[in-house]
Design a protein that fits this description.
Order of helices and strands: EEEEEEEEEHEEEEEHEEEEEEEEEEEH
Number of helices: 3
Distance between the termini: 37 Å
Strand order of the largest sheet: 19-20-21-22-1-25-24-23
Radius of gyration: 19 Å
Structural class: mainly beta
Number of strands: 25
Low-confidence stretches: 324-340
Oligomer: single chain
Shape: globular
Mean pLDDT: 84
Helix content: under 10%
């Protein structure tokens, strides 16, 4: 599909980095590094700024520098993990809008030096996500599910075997994660040096790999140099909607076009939208009616809130057949990756 950008508001977002955009009721929630805060709530229709929260600092409702975040699309709870202070901060968007701090909570439960994210599960369980050692050894499991302070499940598998290099450290250090509205599926997309997409089934006290796909083969040597040509964009964002997975993805050509690609929960490509204007999609989300909202960036590096409008179907912009086949056959790790 071809698409265009419909800016919701003429003014740019006053932030240096955008980490996530979420839709909740009539709100669009942008999380990133603003001048004084990390969270801003906008009107979904007009793009008007409604409120700001989570300011920089070490106080009860503040953060220093956060990693992965979790948003419960049903309850409106948002969970941050502070990489500097090792705090888990939870707030509710309705409390943010009312100016109340009663729903804010800060803890250090089950965190350690390797933690990079905390996600709430069903029945009060908590999923902790950990970084991978640059040397290939991992003192913590990749995923650990806690019931209170007790471990009830752990998972330490990766799509690509890596026992001697720092490949998985580089691949997953900037991955994107999102949990479906019913909290039964988790999706993680690798955002650099390739494009690997994993979907997990989440139970009350366990998780199981549902499928893994390799849309852009991993390039182990990419990114070792600072030059732009050496960097490969993968899934720069993933968003778990009720009906499927919304992703923002680069491609091997390294041009300025980044696509919004949607997959169903079985991994089948549904559509690919390529914007034809001067804006690049950076982060995207989808509401219950199927409307796609995004944070886009212009050539000068300014961010804007936008609605993505589909214009027409053009076969030249469809996902290449060889990539579709890669998504529709049982996946195996390519032989050339086995020795990494």
């Amino acid at each position: 599909m071809r698409g265009r950008t419909e800016l919701l508001f003429s003014e740019d977002l006053p932030c240096k980095i955008v980490n996530k955009v979420e839709v909740y009721n009539s709100y669009l929630i942008v999380v990133g590094f603003f001048q004084k805060n990390f969270l801003a709530v906008y009107d979904k229709q007009s793009g008007e700024l409604l409120n700001e929260a989570i300011f920089k600092g070490r106080g009860p409702n503040e953060l220093v520098f956060f990693g992965n975040l979790d948003f419960n699309k049903t309850t409106g709870d948002m969970t941050f993990y502070d990489l500097q202070t090792n705090d888990i901060l939870t707030c509710n968007i309705e409390d943010v809008m009312s100016g109340s701090a009663s729903g804010f909570c800060k803890t250090k439960d089950n965190v350690n030096a390797w933690t990079k994210g905390a996600f709430s599960l069903q029945e009060g369980k908590m999923l902790m996500v950990h970084r991978v050692s640059p040397r290939g050894s991992n003192p913590q499991k990749r995923f650990v599910i806690y019931d209170g302070d007790s471990v009830c499940f752990s998972y330490n598998e990766f799509p690509i075997l890596d026992t001697t290099t720092s490949l998985n450290f580089r691949l997953y250090e900037q991955s994107s994660m999102s949990i479906s509205p019913d909290r039964t599926r988790l999706v993680e997309g690798v955002g650099r040096n390739g494009a690997t997409l994993e979907v997990f089934d989440l139970g009350v006290d366990e998780m199981m790999l549902h499928w893994v796909k390799y849309l852009i083969p991993v390039h182990p040597d990419a990114g070792k140099k600072r030059g732009k040509k050496d960097f490969i964009y993968g899934f720069t964002d993933v968003y778990a909607a009720g009906e499927g997975i919304v992703t923002v993805i680069g491609d091997e050509t390294q041009d300025k076009i980044r696509s919004i690609c949607i997959f169903d929960w079985d991994g089948t490509p549904v559509k690919r939208i390529v914007l034809e204007d001067d804006y690049n999609p950076m982060k995207a989300c989808m509401d219950d009616e199927g409307n796609i909202y995004a944070v886009v960036r212009n050539e000068s590096g300014y961010y804007y809130l936008a609605r993505i409008i589909e214009t027409e179907t053009v076969p030249a912009y469809s996902i290449p057949e060889e990539k579709i086949r890669r998504f529709n056959v049982p996946e195996r790790v390519p032989a050339r990756y086995q020795e990494l």
